[in-house]
Automatic annotation (TrEMBL):
Binding of pyridoxal 5'-phosphate, residues: 118-119, 252, 315-316
Example GO molecular function: adenosylmethionine-8-amino-7-oxononanoate transaminase activity
Residues that, per the record, bind substrate: 58, 151, 281, 314, 398
Major localization class: cytoplasm
Keywords: Aminotransferase, Biotin biosynthesis, Cytoplasm, Pyridoxal phosphate, S-adenosyl-L-methionine, Transferase
Site (Participates in the substrate recognition with KAPA and in a stacking interaction with the adenine ring of SAM): 23
Protein's name according to its UniProt entry: Adenosylmethionine-8-amino-7-oxononanoate aminotransferase
Alphabetical list of PANTHER family matching this protein: ADENOSYLMETHIONINE-8-AMINO-7-OXONONANOATE AMINOTRANSFERASE (PTHR42684:SF17)
UniProt source species: Shewanella metallivivens
Class of enzymatic activity (EC top level): transferase
Phylogenetic placement of the source organism: Bacteria, Pseudomonadati, Pseudomonadota, Gammaproteobacteria, Alteromonadales
Keyword Cytoplasm: yes
TM helices/strands, residue ranges: none
Length: 444
């Protein structure tokens, strides 16, 4: 087998035969597109085609690709200390990123656990909640409550709090812990809390609170499970009930954190505090994997009072210095930059340019919040087919289920954004034009 070490040649045959991609089959390969470089908001394919990126690489690359500040910070760190174990050792890159996280998040969040990825940050948050109640002599509080249509990651505990129908519960049988599910919030972002939601929340707490260690929820935006936004008043009510019934509140800001919905953290729309907070994705500006779980002094003290006496988690690459240096550079760019103005300009433009999609008969709904624009179709789409249509239009948009959506880098310019929104409308319209719904229903 010929091995090429140039990074402009893509060995598609090897890839198809040997390499898993997310959610793919090894016998029925889906098309993949070879990317050789990325700059700003553009991805360059091996064919030489340049695509405008509407995904921020699964919502992480908020400053765009190859940002000189992040690259310089990583290059400096790489030569000084790219990795060292975190057990019994500390280093300034971990301290710097943690200082910023403590300072940026609500005042009650004082303790930082540096995790490897979003799913692991969620695992850590759930373990923190369980150990906390052991330390507070309520070991019966072992279940987690959450809302339907959520998404929190692909590891086992994270899967257990993903949507029970759309998630992966049935595929892994009894290995996925049975948690308590509340109906998904129905009060929309700009609406007050409706009675349906109030009743569902109150019933769930009064029925289950004795067994419940924590509620976990994606604040304001249900991402991969629904691509929808709900009322800040829902979070206010949830916080009140958690306090009333002695239940911890875990906010999963892995998708929403660092400006995506127009506030630095989505919980700011509701002006509430979490007991435990998960961040990831945009933490490093999308340059390398890193996530974090923050908690309050009270949670940390409860864990320390538990029979184990320590928090029981410690992965090999915890606090990786290279990732911490990237994160610190990315957070400084955010803190010193004009992300707020960028995100609000994206929001205005998305609202203007996507509005007309609602007239397409195959479109169910159009919604925008911050730098998130969603066209929800009536039926599930054929993602691979639509992906190809987007590539032909010179953009990178990756639809799933019924959602044709974008979450572009904050640095995208108006002309690039118009290319993305035009492509979304054109592709959504082509589904209508085909006159054949079946053609686009995903069987995957
Ligand atoms: C809200 C939320 N939580 C957790 C995760 C899991 O993160 P990761 O894919 O880094 O494990 C995701 C990923 O999309 C997410 O959107």
């Amino acid at each position: 087998m010929a091995l090429s070490n140039t990074n402009t040649t893509i060995d598609y045959a090897f890839d198809a035969r040997h390499i898993w991609h997310p959610y793919t089959s090894m016998t029925q390969a889906l098309p993949v597109y070879g990317v050789v470089s990325a700059q700003g908001c553009e991805l360059t394919l091996d064919s030489g085609e340049v695509l405008i990126d509407g995904t921020s690489s699964w919502w992480s690359c908020v400053h765009g690709y190859s940002h000189p500040t992040i690259l310089a910070a990583m290059q400096k760190q790489l030569t000084q200390l790219s990795h060292v174990m975190f057990g019994g050792i500390t280093h300034q890159p971990a301290i710097e990123v943690s200082k910023r996280l403590v300072q940026m998040t609500s005042a009650n969040l004082t303790k930082v656990f540096l995790a490897d990825s979003g799913s692991i940050a969620v695992e850590v948050a759930l373990k923190m909640a369980l150990q906390y109640w052991q330390g507070r002599n309520k070991p019966q509080k072992q279940r987690i409550m959450t809302v339907k249509s959520g998404y929190h990651g692909d590891t086992f505990a994270a899967m257990s709090v993903c949507d029970p129908d759309g998630g992966m519960h049935t595929m892994f049988g009894n290995n996925v812990t049975k948690q308590v599910f509340i109906p998904a919030p129905t009060s929309k972002f700009n609406e007050p809390l409706n009675q349906t939601d109030i009743t569902a929340l109150e019933n769930a707490f009064s029925q289950h609170h004795q067994d419940i260690a924590a509620v976990i929820i994606e604040p304001i935006m249900q991402g991969a499970g629904a691509m929808r936004f709900y009322s800040p008043a829902y979070l206010v009510k949830l916080r009140l009930l958690c306090d009333q019934y002695n239940v911890l509140l875990i906010l999963d800001e892995i998708a929403t954190g660092f400006g995506r919905t127009g506030t630095l953290f989505a919980y700011e729309h509701a002006n509430i505090e979490a007991d435990i907070l998960c961040v990831g994705k945009a933490l490093t500006g999308g340059y390398i994997s890193l996530a974090a779980t923050l908690c309050s002094d009270e949670v940390a003290n409860g864990i320390s009072d538990s029979p184990a006496g320590v928090f029981m988690h410690g992965p090999t690459f915890m606090g990786n210095p290279l990732a911490c240096a990237a994160a610190t550079a990315s957070l400084d760019l955010l803190l010193q930059g004009d992300w707020q103005q960028q995100v609000s300009a994206i929001e205005v433009q998305l609202k203007q340019e996507l509005a007309r999609a609602i007239d397409l008969t195959q479109v169910q709904d159009v919604r925008v919040l911050g730098a998130v624009g969603v066209i929800e179709m009536v039926n599930n789409v054929n993602a691979a087919q639509l992906q190809q249509a987007f590539v032909e239009l010179g953009v990178w948009v990756r639809p799933f289920n019924k959602y044709i959506y974008i979450m572009p880098p904050y640095t995208i310019n108006a002309a690039q954004l118009t290319r993305l929104t035009s492509a979304m409308i054109s592709v959504a319209g082509s589904i209508e034009d085909s006159g054949n719904k079946q053609q686009f229903i995903s069987h995957g």
